[in-house]
Every structure is written in C-alpha cells, then in structure tokens.
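Reviewers of the previous submission asked for a worked example of the structure-prediction workflow described in the proposal, so we include one complete record here. The input consisted solely of the amino acid sequence. No template or homolog information was supplied to the procedure at any stage.
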Amino acid sequence: MKKKVIILLKCLFMFGSCLQLVSQNIDIGSAAVDIKGYDVKSKKYIKLSQYKNKKNVLLNFTATYCSPCWKTYPHMDKLQQKYPSDLKVISIHGDETKDLWYKIAKRLKVNFKSATIWKVEDKEKIKKIYKIKQYPTFFIINKEGIIIDKWVGNRKKYMDYSVKYLIEP
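From that input alone, the workflow returned the following structure tokens.
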C-alpha cells in the first residue's frame, strides 16, 4: 500500500510539473516570461524583466544557420538607434555556434549594436514557452511586460510598423 501511495504522489508531482510548463506557453496578450542571459555587448547578465516599466522590447529569436535572420540584424540596429530611450532590442541565439556567427558577421560586415545573448538560462525551456519553431521569430513587448505582437520571418516593413505604432501611437 505504501508503494502505491508513493507512486501516486510521484505521478501527481510529474503531472503538476507538466501542467506548469504547458500553462507557461505564451502568446499575444500574455505577460512575457522572464529570460536571463549573458549579453556579449554589455559583457554582463541581463534579464528581460529589468526593462519592465522602463522600455519596450523587440525580442528576437535567431540562429546562425538562418539566412533570413542575417538580413534582420542591420534593421534591428537602426530601430535601436532610432528609439534609444524607448526601445531595447534583444536577440536570443537558439544555437551555440558563436565562433561561426562572428566569422559570418565579420564577412557580412554586421556590427550588431543591440543586446545579443548566447548563454540563456534554461534555453530549451524558454524556446518551448515562447513556442519557437522557426527563426527568426519576433515579439514586441510593451513597457508593462505584455506581448503585444509576434511574427515569424524577415518582415522589415512589418517590424517598422509594429515598433512605430508602439512608440509613436
């Protein structure tokens, strides 16, 4: 009897853990789940939550092998420079090929001025929560920490419109 109770408790615990992960899936209208990672530009750990009530965030999930992703970097830099007091651009790398990324960036003359994060705590869990299935995937998060827009792909005009609408309503 004692073994059955222990097995039942373990099953309930595992079920509860699964429900917690599923309930954290987010979309437009949801509060952004915090992300912590090492920003190679500032050379320190940053958290998504540190911008809450301070700046809007353009959050980008990218990968080294993603050709359309490479075309978005200069555009994100322009937005970061255009709205320095209202917007923080953060790019999360889904892969771990940092050396290759820097070689390609040098060849393409990409000077990424925005936050670029490789070391993300619980990276695979974060990708599941944010439902990352393709790169690039973008999220617009307002100052209150709510996701107000999401899209997949290199859509520069849409990115401009979405950011401008948020900052210059």
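Helices lie at 2-23, 67-82, 98-108, 123-129, 156-167. We consider this example representative of the routine output the project will generate in years two and three.
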